[in-house]
Write a structure and sequence with these properties.
The structure is a single chain. The chain has 305 residues and is α+β, with helices and mostly antiparallel strands. The protein has a domain of 212 residues: Nucleoside Triphosphate Pyrophosphohydrolase. It is built from seven helices and eleven strands. Strands 1, 2, 3, 4, 5, 6 and 7 form a seven-stranded mixed β-sheet that branches. A hairpin with an 8-residue loop joins strand 5 and strand 6. The N terminus is likely disordered.
Length: 305
């Protein structure tokens, strides 16, 4: 994807690293994205659907201080052939998220490993996640050995693919991130690990979006879009059913110059926005995120006068 000419003002905005959660440079050669995975833990509580979120440490290079879902990049160890026997069943439609079966399995492993490390939770076929030894969370390299010794398998089928987001080319750290939904067990007590993530909470999607609207928290566009989509459902079962038909086409926002009566700034044009090369919207919400101060705010496209 190419972005065409940039004005001097826009190039300047895109070459600075600040508190906008991203490190942007329109003049830098694009970096190849790394495979990554994110798990959106869901539960039914008091007659409503709730989502588990963590807050990234403010000093973390990518998305520092933002509210996110547990997840991270695929590590080389996630490709270990031993995982072939330790992931019970692959999620449905997983082949739509990766070029080959090995990459697909590594993505599932990464999703579950990151969930273990960042939330202390692991979906298993025949064992309650609450019974996991605490040392596994702090040293996931022991996970393969523990699963073999306990004759346990990861419940891959419990991860339901929802979407796939690709970081724009102007970002320094680029990720090809697969988003999965998972219905947490009733005994689950996920919590942040205190290093990369400093807070955690369960809340409805609407409540978390309201916190963002009030300026109390930071959300990156993929997180905001996922919460917006989830806000339409009253329980986990209905969300999981809808996810089965949700598009898995890659969503890659396009950085554009945004001009309106407030001046000139940047925007992330989403598929379906008039300034994005894909005419069809692939996610729920306004067609772009506009940089307002230090926040990426969802807004509808309005042509400059």
């Amino acid at each position: 994807m190419r972005f065409g000419p940039w004005s001097t003002a826009t190039a300047h905005l895109c070459s600075r690293k600040d508190k906008t959660l991203l490190d942007l440079d329109a003049n830098r050669p694009p970096q190849g994205p790394r495979d990554a995975a994110t798990v959106v833990l869901l539960r039914d509580e008091d007659g409503r659907l709730e989502v588990f979120c963590v807050k990234r440490h403010g000093k973390i290079a990518f998305a520092g201080g933002a509210i996110v879902f547990p997840g991270g990049k695929v590590d080389p160890s996630d490709h270990d052939p031993a995982w072939e026997q330790l992931v019970a069943t692959q999620p449905g439609r997983l082949t739509d998220l990766a070029a080959d079966a090995k990459t697909a399995r590594a993505t599932v492993v990464a999703a579950c490993r990151e969930l273990l490390e960042e939330a202390g939770y692991l979906p298993l076929v025949a064992k309650d996640a609450a019974e996991l030894p605490s040392e596994l969370r702090h040293d996931s390299s022991k996970l393969i050995g523990w699963l073999n010794s306990e004759r346990q398998q990861i419940d891959g089928a419990s991860l339901v693919p929802l979407s796939r987001w690709l970081t724009p080319e102007v970002e320094t750290r680029r990720f090809d991130t697969r988003f999965f939904l998972h219905h947490a067990s009733r005994s689950a007590r996920p919590t942040h690990e205190g290093h990369e993530n400093t807070e955690s909470f369960w809340a409805s999607a609407n409540d978390t979006l309201a916190q963002f609207d009030e300026g109390k928290i930071q959300l990156l566009p993929p997180t905001h879009r996922t919460l917006t989509w989830l806000s339409a459902f009253s329980n986990v079962a209905s969300a999981l059913r809808a996810a089965e038909s949700h598009t898995l086409e890659i969503i890659c926002p396009r950085f554009v110059q945004h001009v309106d009566d407030q001046g000139t700034t940047l925007a992330l044009a989403m598929p379906g926005d008039p300034e994005h090369e894909l005419a069809t919207a692939l996610s729920t919400g306004p067609s772009r995120f506009v940089l307002r101060g230090e926040r990426w705010v969802p807004e509808s496209y309005r042509p400059s006068r």
